[in-house]
Backbone:
């Protein structure tokens, strides 16, 4: 017994000795490697800086003719990049009350003015979350030695949220002109002077071609009153990934034919923010989207394109990136006859809790202006997930969209209540029921009940002449985790909303998909 | 039953009280309104800016400010707000918003102008720092006058820009625009140093200088200088340029590179180069070691060229002695005698070519005390008959069928 104890002690002593040695060696190693780190000499060349532009407001050079000397294209790009970076760094500084990076983009004397302001805000616990959405630049002067430039920045739209002690104090949008002097120092164009000036408010509303329009509570297409009779659509093999590798326009064309047989006139499809390349939209994706839109036009179907699917940032500093995203998509299709409306975001009210309602609503409001700026021809809506949220931004949207998955028996009442409140067309943008009766959900809905549900809905739609789009054409084999989470019964439910089952057979509800 | 009624009345009462309470709270929130009492809308940087609001009911307010360098929020227990210096000292439009319970109740703008009463501060930027004489090249003088709060002075601020060059001193009066005043100063015909300064009101700038370099050189002349005209392979010939000047007579900058190209009688090109000092460049070249004829021309590459000069080099000897020893395996060339029959200075090149059948081997040695000695070892040159050719200072001698034992 004593022997045993001895051995235990021995092994303990030896192992702890080894452990200490290992720790000491590790410590020495870490210290040495820490001492070896430091500024890389190549960092002096600023080569690795700003690989990704994090701030992309719309910049237009209105005029670069100046009395000093003609400016080179490259210098113009450098000035633009550094000027925007200066704005970005300043926004970050005011958001964090931290001065990091200011010295790169403001000269020594200009920095002081910012520092004093930041210090005051810090003491009062004020932070300002801001962004600018556009800059219209005029070059006033560029010096002969290429080291000094003066420019005027017209009609800069600045959006700001001011927080005090984490409470939103004020949301403000300001339009200003700025005159700016920049000096080339250490390879950076740094702001030496910036002076805010009175801005002439110019409200030139973009002209719409009027092909689709809303008058009162009615939607018109080509001067004909139009009732949306539609369906939310994903191809059966690629749900929530319509424009991915499995994209096949022939499959989609066939599906569109099926919808025609269901006497539908509209489809709703989804464009994912990341999938389409975020701020730099991928051309191939746009081409795929064009193919779908062209097919829809050929088959005389209207399309509601839902943008920003799976986007969830909404932070003020991320605005400009989403603006570039939307610009590249909607400006390409602004004359496409098949598009009925841009749906900015699917069910954004579900992000209210995690991202803050004020952030989401402010983002949507600005996005609406952005879309109208690049595409005045098509309608804009927001796909709210319930009736309660539907009145948010009702004055800004062209028509109000909402989804309804609650009790079918109280729908009419809820709908009429909303209708009385809102003076715009209402679109029931999603509704449906999953025929998920199985082991996973023993109390689920059978296909027969699903048919009855759609039948009942169609009757209500008919009596009230409601714009509708049902969910969805197909039952799906797989539902990505990002859609409804990883819980198997939720996924299972999401698979059986279709009018056509996994084997391609028409379910009982099929005949009630349209009227 | 009566108890229930009592209950109902009680709850109704509470409900009523609540209703009244809430409506009053709501009403006061909606009713707060204000006007700006301060009439002044335009201030000068450095002024104390006080904004005084008049509220219809006492309420707690905050003032949001949006200015050139950023935004801030002010708090005050009264309705009087004094703008902090970092706002009131900076030129530009200031937008203010008076807030009550996060609601804007008054909005407006005031303007701060640069301070024109206190002394001016000057910043000058001059460049490029060196230009070329002749009046086509120019440097730019940019003057940025600011007030003591680092605000640029308004457009149309008068300023004097001065410069001095050699005997001339000039002063140009102009008005600022877009924050700056600027002037292009073109070079004069002479090279030299150009000094600049400026003045806005009483404030004078520092002195700035730029260098005016001479323009490009014009074509020039060269001459030669040598100790004698013999091709002794020992002395050095010098080629001397005239003073290189630009079209305005300015001596070109020291260090302007001149290339000398020499063509010998066989058409081969020799080259040497030199930088100018006080406008002159001197190229040097070793004399040839055989009779030769040189044509020399100098260039500033791509810019200017000289005339061609011709030089003749005379041979120093007509013949020399060759002695064979040790079964012809030791060959002594010399003494080599130069033009006055003196022993040629050490280092004259002598080449020996040994030919057997088709193979030729060349041995090269330089003279010492006028003599060169070649040893042909048996290990390398087995016994037999060789043709031996000796070349020195342009003279060739050939010994056919020399027997090496």
Residues:
């Amino acid at each position: 017994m004593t022997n045993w104890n001895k051995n235990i002690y021995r092994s303990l002593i030896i192992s702890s000795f080894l452990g200490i040695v290992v720790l000491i060696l590790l410590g020495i190693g870490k210290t040495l490697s820490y001492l070896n780190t430091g500024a890389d000499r190549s960092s002096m060349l600023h080569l690795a800086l700003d690989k990704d532009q994090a701030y992309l407001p719309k910049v237009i050079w209105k005029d670069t003719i100046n009395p000093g000397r003609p400016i080179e294209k490259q210098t113009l790009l450098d000035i633009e990049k550094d000027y925007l970076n200066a704005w970005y760094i300043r926004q970050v500084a005011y958001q964090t009350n931290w001065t990091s990076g200011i010295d790169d983009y403001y000269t020594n004397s200009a920095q002081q003015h910012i520092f004093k302001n930041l210090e005051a805000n810090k003491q009062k616990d004020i932070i300002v979350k801001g962004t600018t959405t556009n800059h219209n630049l005029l070059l006033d002067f560029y010096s002969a030695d290429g080291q000094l430039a003066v420019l005027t920045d017209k009609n800069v739209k600045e959006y700001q949220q001011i927080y005090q002690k984490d409470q939103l104090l004020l949301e403000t949008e300001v339009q200003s002109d700025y005159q700016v002097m920049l000096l080339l120092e250490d390879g950076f164009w740094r702001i030496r002077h910036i002076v805010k000036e009175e801005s002439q408010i110019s409200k030139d509303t973009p002209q719409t071609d009027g092909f689709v329009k809303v008058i009162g509570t009615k939607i018109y297409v080509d001067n004909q009153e139009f009732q949306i009779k539609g369906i939310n659509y994903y191809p059966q093999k690629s749900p929530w990934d319509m424009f991915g590798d499995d994209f096949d326009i022939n499959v989609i064309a066939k599906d569109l034919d099926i919808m025609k047989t269901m006497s539908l006139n509209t489809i709703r499809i989804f464009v994912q923010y990341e999938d389409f390349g975020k701020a730099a939209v991928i051309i191939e994706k746009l081409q795929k989207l064009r193919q779908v839109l062209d097919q829809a036009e050929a088959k005389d179907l209207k399309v509601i394109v839902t943008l920003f699917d799976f986007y969830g940032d909404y932070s003020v500093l991320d605005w400009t990136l989403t603006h570039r995203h939307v610009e590249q998509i909607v400006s390409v299709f602004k004359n496409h006859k098949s598009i009925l409306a841009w749906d900015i975001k699917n069910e954004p009210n579900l992000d209210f809790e995690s991202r803050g309602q004020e952030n989401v609503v402010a983002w949507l409001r600005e996005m609406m202006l952005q879309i109208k700026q690049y595409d005045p021809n098509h309608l804009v809506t927001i796909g709210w997930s319930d009736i309660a949220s539907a009145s948010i931004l009702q004055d800004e949207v062209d028509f109000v969209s909402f989804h309804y998955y609650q009790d079918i028996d109280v729908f009419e009442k809820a709908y009429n209540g909303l209708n009385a409140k809102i003076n715009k067309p209402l679109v029931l943008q999603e509704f449906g029921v999953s025929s998920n009766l199985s082991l996973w959900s023993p109390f689920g809905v059978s296909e027969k009940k699903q048919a009855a549900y759609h039948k009942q809905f169609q009757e209500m739609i008919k009596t009230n002449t409601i714009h509708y789009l049902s969910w969805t054409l197909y039952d799906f084999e797989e539902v990505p985790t990002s859609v409804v989470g990883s819980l198997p019964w939720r996924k299972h439910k999401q698979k059986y909303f279709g009018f056509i089952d996994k084997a391609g057979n028409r379910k009982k509800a099929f005949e009630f998909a349209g009227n | 039953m009566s108890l229930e009624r009592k209950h109902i009345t009680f709850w109704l009462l509470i409900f009523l009280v609540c209703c009244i309470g809430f409506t009053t709270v709501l009403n006061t929130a909606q009713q707060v309104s204000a006007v700006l009492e301060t009439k002044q809308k335009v201030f000068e940087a450095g002024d104390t800016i006080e904004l005084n609001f008049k509220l219809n009911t006492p309420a707690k307010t905050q003032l949001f400010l949006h200015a050139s360098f950023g935004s801030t929020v002010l708090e005050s227990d009264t309705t009087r707000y004094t703008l902090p210096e970092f706002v009131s000292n900076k030129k530009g439009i200031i937008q203010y918003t008076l807030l009550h319970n996060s609601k804007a109740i008054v909005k407006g703008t005031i303007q701060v102008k640069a301070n024109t009463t206190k002394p001016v501060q000057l910043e000058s930027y001059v460049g490029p720092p060196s230009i070329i004489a002749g009046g086509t090249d120019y440097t730019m003088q940019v003057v940025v006058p600011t007030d003591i709060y680092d605000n640029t002075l308004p457009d149309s601020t008068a300023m004097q820009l001065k410069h001095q060059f050699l005997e001339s001193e000039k002063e140009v009066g102009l008005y600022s625009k877009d924050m700056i005043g600027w002037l292009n100063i073109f070079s004069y015909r002479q090279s030299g140093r150009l000094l600049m300064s400026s003045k806005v009101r009483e404030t004078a700038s520092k002195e700035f200088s730029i260098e005016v370099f001479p323009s490009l050189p014009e074509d020039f002349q060269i001459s030669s200088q040598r100790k004698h005209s013999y091709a002794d392979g020992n002395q050095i010939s010098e080629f001397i340029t005239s003073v290189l000047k630009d079209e305005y007579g300015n001596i070109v900058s020291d260090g302007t590179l001149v290339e000398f190209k020499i063509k010998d009688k066989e058409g081969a090109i020799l080259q040497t180069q030199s930088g100018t000092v006080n406008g002159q460049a001197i190229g040097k070249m070793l004399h040839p070691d055989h009779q030769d004829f040189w044509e020399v021309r100098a260039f500033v590459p791509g810019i200017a060229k000289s005339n061609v000069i011709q030089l003749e080099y005379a041979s120093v000897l007509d013949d020399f002695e060759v002695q064979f020893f040790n079964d012809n395996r030791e060959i002594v060339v010399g003494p080599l005698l130069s033009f006055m029959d003196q022993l040629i200075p050490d280092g004259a090149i002598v080449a020996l070519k040994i030919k057997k059948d088709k193979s030729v081997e060349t041995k090269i040695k330089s003279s010492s005390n006028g003599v060169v000695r070649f040893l042909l070892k048996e290990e390398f040159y087995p016994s037999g008959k060789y043709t031996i050719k000796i070349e020195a200072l342009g003279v060739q001698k050939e010994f056919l069928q020399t027997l090496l034992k």
